[in-house]
Amino acid sequence: MSIFVPSFTITNSISRTLSRIDQAKGFLDAATLSESWLNQMRQRALILEAHHTTHIEGTHLTLEQSEKLLSGKKLQNIDPEDERELRNYIRAFDYVEQHVEDNTSITEDMVLEIHRRLVKGVRGGKASPGKYRLTQNYIINSLTGEIVYTPPSPESVPGMTRNLIEWLNSGIDIHPVLISGVAQFQLVHIHPFSDGNGRTSRLLSTVCLYRAGYDFKKLFTISQFYDRDRQAFYRALQNVRESGMDLTDWLEYFTSGLSVQMIEVADRGRIAIRIELISVKHNLSRRQRLLVEFLLEHSTMNVQNAEAICTGVNRRTLQRDLAELIDKGIITKEGSTNQLFYMLDE
User: Fold this and answer.
1) Does residue 141 carry a pLDDT above 80?
2) Could you give the C-alpha distances from 288 to 36, 42, 160, 310, 317, in angstroms and in order?
3) From CA 128, how far away is CA 151, in angstroms rounded?
4) Which percentage of the chain shows pLDDT scores above 90?
5) Cβ-count burial of 201 within 10 angstroms (0-12 exposed, 13-18 middle, 19+ buried)?
């Protein structure tokens, strides 16, 4: 079996997006963010990733249903397989997190264990948790039924997977984000398992980022970007095979997606810092903090928005909160009584 040597070119587009990613990383590394905010946002990111990475693979849960299930609520009329896959992702992520904390190398056993945790107990056990596939599989266009990709033979899978892992541990001088993108593509390309290849590859990609210090305080969710336009995601993967296994287009897509996510995370971090400064300076209540946070994210707000943010609080109380924010010079209001809008007083 020949060694694995990925082929790609670092284009101007890739260089620009890597620069933006590093800028966002630098901000997050240096920013003083409250532990309560970080914990809240990490939990949110984990729920989003669990939802979107399983949704890409065909689960039918809505984001709201995923949030409720992972908060401990019981739901009726949902596919138990969908719920199991969602919870399996959390178990697999916990394993990845522990693996990174222990600072151990990426190993074949680790990849197999990620897969085992992701697919254990789902789809009638057909995915053979933690075991390589023994039969040939195919990637089918769900609309046309056409075979769009035939993965390597099952006999090739163990050797190709080990070659990838050897490359990941070789200490090669490539930007960690690109290593992560190569790892994700190559594992999907090998397609070593009967099912769960996409989820396994995305978690392997996460391992690569975390081990290199690119955990971004565990606030990002790359699968959300993929799930926004799944056709673009699949095209980016297929383009590699159609261009003689040149990964350049895929890495442009991958770094662009991570850049979008990191800019969003950094922006939320800046908002959190502004809220903290405003809150301390003006001694805001918890409700007032929520109202200011909404305005920092959405620019304008009406009283109906305020009621949706502060559920269970009557309108008169909210109007007093808003009046106090106006008196303190934090917000202003415009419009008539029935069409009243609030904005930050810049």
Assistant:
1) no
2) 17, 23, 56, 9, 11
3) 18
4) 63
5) buried
Nearest Cα to Cα of residue 293 among 272, 322, 262, 270: 272
* E-assigned strand segments in 104-188: 139-140, 147-149
In whole angstroms, how far apart are CA 282 and each of 75, 207, 221, 292? 42, 42, 33, 12
Radius of gyration over alpha carbons of the chain, in Å?
23
**86 close to 66: Cβ distance less than 8 angstroms:** yes
pLDDT in tens, 195-229: 999 999 999 999 999 999 898 888 888 899 999 99
User: At 142, is the pLDDT very low, low, confident or very high (cuts 50, 70, 90)?
Assistant: low
End-to-end C-alpha distance for the chain, whole angstroms: 63
Cα–Cα distance measured from residue 180 to residue 71, given in angstroms and rounded to the nearest whole number = 30
Catalytic residue among 52, 55, 115, 191: 191
In 3-state terms, what secondary structure has residue 52? helix
Q: What residues have CB less than 8 Å from 250, skipping those under 6 apart?
A: 8, 181, 185, 236, 237, 239, 240
Across the range 92-110, mean pLDDT stands at: 92
- Which tens digits make up the pLDDT trace of 321-338? 999 999 999 999 998 767
pLDDT of 297 above 90: no
Would residue 191 show up in a list of annotated catalytic residues for this protein?
A: yes
| Cα distance between residue 269 and residue 315, in whole Å | 30
In whole angstroms, what is the distance from residue 194 CA to residue 191 CA? 8
Q: Which domains does the chain have, with CATH numbers?
A: 15-270 (1.10.3290.10), 283-344 (1.10.10.10)
Non-local CB neighbours of 284 within 8 Å, separated by 6+ positions: 278, 292, 325
Burial 235-256 (b: 16+ CB within 10 A, else e): ebbebbbeeeebbbbbbbbbbb
Taking the C-alpha atoms of residue 59 and residue 37, their distance in angstroms, rounded to an integer, is 30
Burial category of 299 from C-beta neighbours within 10 Å (exposed 0-12, middle 13-18, buried 19 and up): exposed
Higher pLDDT, 19 or 121: 19
Q: Residue 49: its pLDDT value, please?
A: 94
Strand 341-344 with 300-301, pairing: antiparallel
